[in-house]
UniProtKB/TrEMBL annotation:
Start and end residues of each Glyceraldehyde 3-phosphate dehydrogenase catalytic domain: 1-96
Protein name, UniProt field: Glyceraldehyde-3-phosphate dehydrogenase
GO cellular component, one term: cytosol
Keyword Heme among record annotations: no
InterPro entries registered for this protein in UniProt: GlycerAld/Erythrose_P_DH, GlycerAld_3-P_DH_cat
GO BP: any one term: glycolytic process
Amino acid sequence: ATQKTVDGPSAKDWRGGRAASFNIIPSSTGAAKAVGKVLPSLNGKLTGMSFRVPTVDVSVVDLTVRLEKAATYDEIKAAIKEESEGKMKGILGYTEN
């Protein structure tokens, strides 16, 4: 993102000011590339972005996938949850809160 954060109002539009302490700011990350190095089967199959979020403890994943066969949302959630409790425990966490 190229929009600058400003702790104050915009000179052009009073609603255009952005306070860094109250906004989610999209950014880039090298974490997705690092996943491919740690899990070679995912190399080249994963991209990512980061969000600068004004909280002490938070994590966000914007996951977009292309599936080989049809699956419902509940089936996808169940598969991710199962992996987070099995082979990927300690690497992948799952919560619905």
